[in-house]
Specification:
Strand content: under 5%
CATH topology: Histone, subunit A
Structural class: mainly alpha
CATH architecture: Orthogonal Bundle
CATH superfamily: Histone, subunit A
Order of helices and strands: HEHHHHHEHHH
Distance between the termini: 25 Å
Shape: globular
Largest sheet: 2 strands, parallel
Strand order of the largest sheet: 1-2
InterPro entries: Histone-fold
Number of strands: 2
GO molecular function: protein heterodimerization activity
Length: 210
């Protein structure tokens, strides 16, 4: 998971003294998975500027813009840290057609590795880029630590925003003490998240239930 139960409950507890169910959290992590795929598919590039454009394309809201600002800050912090290693920032020219699925899979494993909201309690600078897991690197696919950290920051920012929306939904209802899929659905249909949610298969599945 990008976001662990512990981290999710901590974020919600800052707003209201309630919890989120494991099923509801799984829905949020599922959305982040699909959101990541949409970004990879939209950018079709490992160029940072193209990735920024893809974020604004998939999530053309203040949330999208603010997530970029947050990711820019996280990237700057990493580049100025002792963990930055130029030798690990190599660029790999990818073959045509662009391997969307394999790029997505490598991003996913690296974003989970760097996520500060995962089961491990650490900051990004506690993670050694040299031990960052790889997937499909034998196929010539390589996502640098800085790019993985940037994308992780995007997912974390959006994920935290969704959890805040869930907490506010709980607070308004008053008689609900544990967030379930219904509260997550309300969060995902919020105007700031909806443009991305509308493009996911998750939306189709949830609309049948709600």
């Amino acid at each position: 998971y990008y976001i662990s139960q512990r981290a999710a409950n901590t974020i919600i507890a800052d707003i209201t003294p309630y919890l989120i169910s494991s099923e509801a959290l799984a829905v949020i992590n599922h959305f982040l998975d699909e959101f990541l795929f949409l970004l990879v598919e939209s950018s079709c590039s490992l160029n940072l500027e193209n990735i920024k454009l893809s974020i604004l394309n998939v999530l053309p809201t203040h949330l999208g813009k603010n997530s970029i600002k947050e990711a820019d800050f996280e990237l700057k912090t990493f580049l100025e840290s002792g963990n930055f290693d130029k030798n690990l920032e190599k660029t790999v020219e990818l073959l045509d057609p662009y391997p969307i699925q394999r790029i997505f899979e490598q991003f996913r494993i690296k974003c989970k590795y760097y996520s500060t909201l995962s089961e491990q309690n650490f900051s990004i600078n506690d993670r050694d880029p040299k031990t960052m897991p790889g997937l499909h690197e034998s196929d010539g696919i390589y996502i640098s630590p800085s790019l993985a950290i940037y994308m992780t920051a995007i997912l974390e920012y959006v994920g935290e925003h969704i959890l805040i929306l869930v907490a506010n939904a709980l607070k308004q209802q008053g008689d609900v003490t544990i967030a379930k899929a219904n509260e997550v659905y309300l969060a995902l249909t919020d105007s700031q998240v909806l443009p991305a949610f509308q493009r996911t298969s998750l939306r189709e599945k949830m609309e049948v239930c709600f």
